Structure formats: C-alpha cells, structure tokens
C-alpha cells in the first residue's frame, strides 16, 4: 500500500528561512514520497483559485523537482553524499 500525502507541500519563496527549512526536510524523504507529494501538489493545483496558494504550491513543486534532480545528478556522478532509491524502495548511498 502506498502512502498518499494528506496535503500539498507549500513553500514561500519570499522567505529564505522557509526555503532552507523545507529543502533540508526534503533531503530526508524517500524518492517515492517525493514523487507522491509532487503528484498531490499537481492535484491540489487543479482546483485552486487563490493565486497566493497557487504560487506556494508551484514553489513546493519546484523545490521537490530540484531535490529529485540533485539526487539523479549526484547518482550519475557517483557522489557518495547523495542517497539513491532502488526499485524495491530501499535506499542506498553511492560510494
């Protein structure tokens, strides 16, 4: 059974503290959770009419995509500090 996030992941890109705190949090999430939250953000955005909330949802999605890209790039370069996820969901550090 897959875990489905309950709410959208919002980021206030006008707040450096919010960005730093949420970026740090994303680094501890599994790739499957990142993708599930990204999907949730897309679903939330479809029906959202408040422009401020839309910006925060989009900002959250951008931060998630940056984290996914950071992991893929690090894995391709053999960066030992970047965790990768196997198809079975287990996490492996590249060394």
Explain what this protein looks like in three dimensions.
The chain has 95 residues and is mostly helical. A two-stranded antiparallel ribbon has the order 1-2. Helix 2 runs antiparallel to helix 3. The longest helix has 27 residues. It is globular.
Defining traits:
95 residues; mainly alpha; two-stranded antiparallel ribbon; 59% helix; 6% strand
Brief characterization of the structure:
By secondary structure, this protein is mainly alpha-helical. The chain has helices at 16-27, 31-47, 51-77; strands at 83-85, 91-93.
Q: What topology emerges from the helices and strands here?
A:
Layout: H1 16-27, H2 31-47, H3 51-77, E1 83-85, E2 91-93
Antiparallel strand pairs: 1-2
Helix pairs in contact: 2-3
**Unreliably modeled segments:** none
Percentage of residues in helical conformation: 55-70%
Q: If you compute it from the alpha carbons, what radius of gyration comes out, rounded to the nearest whole angstrom?
A: 14 Å
- The side-by-side strand order for the widest beta sheet comes to 1-2
Order of helices and strands: HHHEE
Cα distance spanning the termini: 31 Å
Mean pLDDT: 83
- Main sheet? 2 strands, antiparallel
Number of beta strands: 2
